[in-house]
Structure formats: structure tokens, C-alpha cells
Amino acid sequence: MAVTSGVEMGGKVKTSVALDEDLLYWIDAMVKIKRFANRTHAIEYALQRLKEQEKEELHISVRA
């Protein structure tokens, strides 16, 4: 599957998302206490965990 939107940045694609305000506050709090390096790190971590969980639950493999 090809990425059809965003701007490539050295292996990553810049994009935008809309988040619930509560989630963004939580992410910012985690960045502040150094749980994550930045918002991108927090979101990538969460999506990677979800991807792994879905793979285990659904026994699927999707090319990343």
C-alpha cells in the first residue's frame, strides 16, 4: 500500500491528525515527565502497540 498524502521526511511521512483534547493533554503530560520524547514518539508508540495487539488477536500480517 502506498502512502498517498503527507510529506516524506527521511523514512517518515509528515501528516496531521485530530485528537480529543483529553488525549492531547495526556500526551503532553507524558512528554513533560519524559515518558515520551515528543508527541510523535507517543503516537508512534501507541500505534505500534496497537498493531502488535491486532496482529496477535487477528493472526494477520500487514506490510508496514
Which descriptors apply to this entry?
64 residues; mainly alpha; two-stranded antiparallel ribbon
Order of helices and strands: EEHH
Strand arrangement, largest sheet? 1-2
Main sheet makeup: 2 strands, antiparallel
What is the average of the pLDDT values?
88
| Uncertain runs | none
Note the topology:
Blueprint: E1 7-9, E2 12-14, H1 21-32, H2 39-58
Antiparallel strand pairs: 1-2
Describe this protein's structure:
The protein has 64 residues and is mainly α. It has one domain. The chain has 2 helices and 2 strands. The chain has a two-stranded antiparallel ribbon with strand order 1-2. The chain is globular and about 35 Å long. The N and C termini lie close together (9 Å).
The gist of it:
The protein is mainly alpha-helical. It has helices spanning 21-32, 39-58, and strands spanning 7-9, 12-14.
